[in-house]
Each structure stands twice: as C-alpha cells, then as structure tokens.
Amino acid sequence: MSAAVIDGKQFAATLRARIADYAATFEQSAGRKAGLAVVLVGEDPASQVYVKSKGKATLECGMNSFEYKLPIDCDEATLLARIEALNADEAVDGILVQLPLPGHLDEQTVIAAINPDKDVDGFHVTNAGRLAVGQPGFVPCTPLGCVMLLKDRLGSLSGLDAVVIGRSNIVGKPMAQLLLAESCTVTIAHSRTKDLAEVVARADIVVAAVGRPEMVKGSWIKPGATVIDVGINRLPPAEGESKGRLVGDVDYAEAAAVAGAITPVPGGVGPMTIAVLLRNALVAAHRNAGVALADGAL
Ligand code: GUN
Fold first, then answer.
1. What is the tally of structural domains in the chain?
2. What confidence tens digit (pLDDT) does each residue in 53-93 have?
3. From 18, 45, 129, 225, which residue has the greatest number of CB atoms within 10 Å?
C-alpha cells in the first residue's frame, strides 16, 4: 500500500485565492484594504526570506503590507514603541514580529505588547487562553493549517486517536488544543516520552513537530493512519551536493508505505503557514472594522 500524498501547496493556493476574493469584498465594504504589518529585527537570512515571502503573498491577496526592519542592536524600548504605534494604527489589522528575536530581546515581553486583537500569530497569552477555553481568538498559523488539511482529508475527526509529537507553544500545544476541540482523543508526546514508538502506534492521526530529521519511523505508524509532518530540516550535503536535502521529522519513504495519507516535505504543511497568516489577517480586518464575515467563510 502507498499513502495518498496530501498536497499542501495546492490546498494553500486554493485558500489564498479565496482570501483574495474576500479581501476584495472587504475593501468594498470597509472602504479600505486589510493591512498586515511585519516587524523584523536583525538580518537573519532565513527570517529575511520568510518576511519577504509574507510581504509578497500579502500584496498578491490584495491586502496592504507594511514592513519594519529594525537593526540587530535595537533596544527593547524602540521595539515596544514600534509595536505601540502599530497597535494604534487603524490601517494595520494584524501585527507579526518575526521570531526568533536577537538574544537580548525577551520574546514573551515583546509578544505581550501586541494588541491581542491584532495578534495574527496567535502567540499572545490572551489568544492561547481563548483557544484553551474555546473562545474566538487567533490560533497559531501552522497548527491551524494542519487541522485544515486533516479535515479536508478525513472529514470529521471526532473520536480519532491523535498523537502530537512536540510541545512547543507555537505548534505542539495549540495543535493539541485544536485536535481536542475537534473531539479527538489527544496524546502529547515529547523528548521524555517513554516508548514513543508504542504511543505513535495507537494513533489514527500523527502530527510530528519536533525538529529532528526523520525521527519518526515507518514501523511506528498504524496502517492507514494520517501523518502530518511539520518538520523542515536540512540534512548536511551529501557528496556532490552543494546544499543538503530538506526532510521532515518523519522518515517519508518508510511512513508512506504504511500510512493512509501523508504530507510531503517540502510542499505539505509549509505552504499552509503563510496562507493561514493571510486568513488570520483578513479575519482580524473584519473584526476590527466591524464588517461581518459569514461563519466558516475562511
Ligand atoms: N518564525 C518562524 N515561524 C514563525 C511564525 O509563524 N511567526 C513568527 N512571528 N515568527 C516565526
């Protein structure tokens, strides 16, 4: 048996097209475009690439993109003042501060300064709390994208056994909350979990978000399970290669032989993150401008 490949790239493209339609309707109703602001501190090459892609995708969806680049030695007060200005700016619906920040800046302090109703990353404790108690708020983009892919593939997730490997605030914890809200029986596994293979073997849904290349083996996967691989790891270059291959947290070749469906790396979860960010920004715009958006429209 060979698993169906879950095409996140295609799904994300379709979602972005729908967002562009809703963004145009929003502009007509509100008399302005939705706006997303991205703040980048320093010149980390990977972060620069992400920020550029976010800006391009935002414009392509018909929203305004505001970019703020601050020097690597920027002090906390300067960054907090920039966030305060964006909180107060009515043209800005969503604020994203690109992580990781340089070591001298405290991420929790910076995230706490963002107005929770503009926190399109869903990282503010207010939004983490809203998710935990089932109130409307903003949900981190990567796990929300994973749930969209799962529901597209499986329909109802109710009653399914789900194992989330990884307990980060950005992916593992919100992923577990979202699966619980979909009435899954959820296990969160992590680096101290005893007999991870046995825990994974029970799962109808496996979400791997540990950042360790090809750690999840095919022999662990229950036949027919749905595997969502959040990991993006670059292997050291093999002989004759200038760059190493990109691989996920799951051994793809092994798992694809056993699973019912699996996300590839690249082209699985990765493209969903920016698409969901744009979705969150447009939802924020509707809320901030008091323009109605049909339930489940985005
Ligand atoms: N760095 C890597 N991924 C993300 C993300 O989703 N949001 C932010 N703010 N920073 C990131």
1. 2
2. 999 999 999 999 999 999 999 999 999 999 999 999 999 99
3. 225
Q: Are 242 and 161 contained in the same domain?
A: yes
CA of 98 to the centre of ligand 1 (A): 5
In a domain, 196, yes or no: yes
Tell me the per-residue pLDDT of 135-155, one tens digit each, with 9 for 90 and over.
999 999 999 999 999 999 999
CA of 243 to the centre of ligand 1 (A): 23
Residue nearest to atom 2 of ligand 1 (CA): 99
Same domain, 93 and 122: yes
Q: Which residue owns the Cα nearest ligand 1 atom 8? A: 98
Identify whether residues 260 and 149 lie together within a single domain. Answer: yes
> Cα angle at 258 between 203 and 166, to 5 degrees?
40
Whether residue 172 is found in the same domain as residue 102: no
Catalytic position from the list 93, 117, 121, 249: 121
**How do beta strands 246-247 and 233-234 pair?**
antiparallel
Q: How far apart are CA 265 and CA 216, in angstroms?
A: 14
Q: Which domain holds residue 73?
A: 30-130
- 118 Cα–ligand 1 center, Å: 15
As given in the structure block, the two tokens for residue 62 are 């018909």
Answer whether residue 296 is part of any domain: no
